[in-house]
Amino acid sequence: MSWASLCDLLSGVNKYSTGIGRIWVAAVSLFRFLVYVAVAENTWQYEQDEFECNTKQPGCENVCFDHFFPVSHIRLWALQLITVSTPSLLVVFHVAYRENREKHCKQRTYRTPGEIDGGLLGTYLISLALKTAFEMVFLVLFYKLYDGFKVPRLVKCDLRPCPYSVDCYISKPTEKMIFLCFLVATSCLCIVLNLSELSYLVFKYLIAWDLKR
Q: What is the chain's mean pLDDT, rounded?
């Protein structure tokens, strides 16, 4: 599987998305996948090799790097992209079930196959709620793991086997800080879009149901 395949999967959901949902797909594809693949991945490519401490004690640099970077920014970002995109599979599977049922019955079972209605509405709302929850969970993870979305130039480490408190220097801290802020900003944007689409669909169908009554 490639990032392009994941983008194609998200684009396939566009047929059943609202205008807000299409903006979300565009934001994820352009501002997250594209930035990750084209630019950000190279910034963290040699992060452990470029992490330097002012000691030659064997194992000290590895221990300090593992302490300050328990999970690499870029790998956590990749995991976040995959996780927040996964709920869209629920919609894809539901649509595939619809099409298979219509093919089996040899007639059109649903009046509006290109719109969100019936059971598909419930599936779509669940996918939106899951995407929002995953975005929030990863923001909390980033905040907890990296002490408030910060990338310091210098960190002090006194873990064994370091013989004393050593100074360790992180490579390209300013560039990494910019990408980390960008990551947080795009996550917040996606949360706002998901909540807006969720509210729009709930109010839309509540009003339609009330008028029908």
A: 80
Q: How confident is the model at residue 212 (pLDDT cuts 50, 70, 90)?
A: confident
Contact 209, 103 (CB under 8 A): no
**DSSP line for 45-77:** TTTTTT-EES---TTHHHHHHHHH-SS-HHHHH
Q: 160 is in which domain, residue-wise?
A: 23-109+151-211
Residue-wise pLDDT tens digits, 68-81: 888 888 888 888 88
- Percentage of the residues of the chain whose pLDDT score is greater than 70: 83
Concatenated DSSP letters of 188-208: HHHHHHHHHHHHHHHHHHHHH
Both structure tokens of 43: 């910034």
Residue 154: its H or E element: strand 154-157
Tell me the backbone φ, ψ of residue 117, rounded to 5 degrees: -155, 165
Q: In the chain, how many domains are there?
A: 1
Distances in Å between the Cα of 45 and the Cα atoms of 30, 40, 124, 172 are 21, 9, 36, 11
- The residue written with tokens 């930035």 in the block is 35
Burial of 149 (0-12, 13-18, 19+ CB in 10 A): middle
Residues in contact with 24: Cβ distance below 8 Å, sequence separation at least 6, in sequence order: 17, 190, 193, 194, 197
Locate 143 and state its tokens. 């905040």
CATH of the domain at 73: 1.20.1440.80
